[in-house]
Amino acid sequence: MLPKAIQLMVLAVLAAVMLVGVCHACKISEYPCRGGASCVPLDKYCDGRDDCGDGSDEPKMCTVCNRTYYGDIGRTYTLTVPPPQWNRLPFLCHLTFTASGHEQGDIVQVSDFDVASFPSKANRAGQQGSNRAAIPMTRPFI
Fold first, then answer.
1. Plastid among the record's keywords (predicted)?
2. Is-contact 12 21, C-beta < 8 A?
3. Would you tell me which of 17, 45, 64, 116 could form a disulfide with 31, CB atoms 3.0–4.6 Å apart?
């Protein structure tokens, strides 16, 4: 018969092994759904659709802004930043795209990027804004 301390330790190890089998670890390029049973790609978080099936990827007041995005090699992602509310200007949205190597690749390729500006309050009614090409890419966000 094993001493009580060893029995408890063996029981704890078995419980941990069973939990690892039940819990699903998401990749860095995925968002964990509530309960940890499934994962969705990061671009599915806060996209307006319930991709998890339980609504956990669409919490109230969620935003695609101010996040770091990782991707997987060979997969294309679509990210849409919704227009800001007029009572919440100025609108800042920091997006960080990271290629961390291995499954996430070594480079990030951005295929399409549009920025709109609203130069005056008179343009608020029904105007979609104008594309602006000047994007400060030389200064990193700190």
1. no
2. no
3. 45
- Residues contacting 35, CB < 8 A, separation 6+: 54
How many other C-beta atoms lie within 10 A of the C-beta of residue 42? 23
Distance CA(25)–CA(38), nearest Å, equals 8
Collapsing DSSP states into helix, strand and coil, what is residue 67?
A: strand
C-alpha 46/C-alpha 31 separation (Å) is 10
- What is d(CA 62, CA 74) in angstroms, rounded to the nearest whole number? 27
Q: Where are the domains of the chain?
A: 24-116+130-138
Would you call 86 helix, strand, or coil by DSSP?
Answer: helix
Q: Are 94 and 110 in contact (CB under 8 A)?
A: no
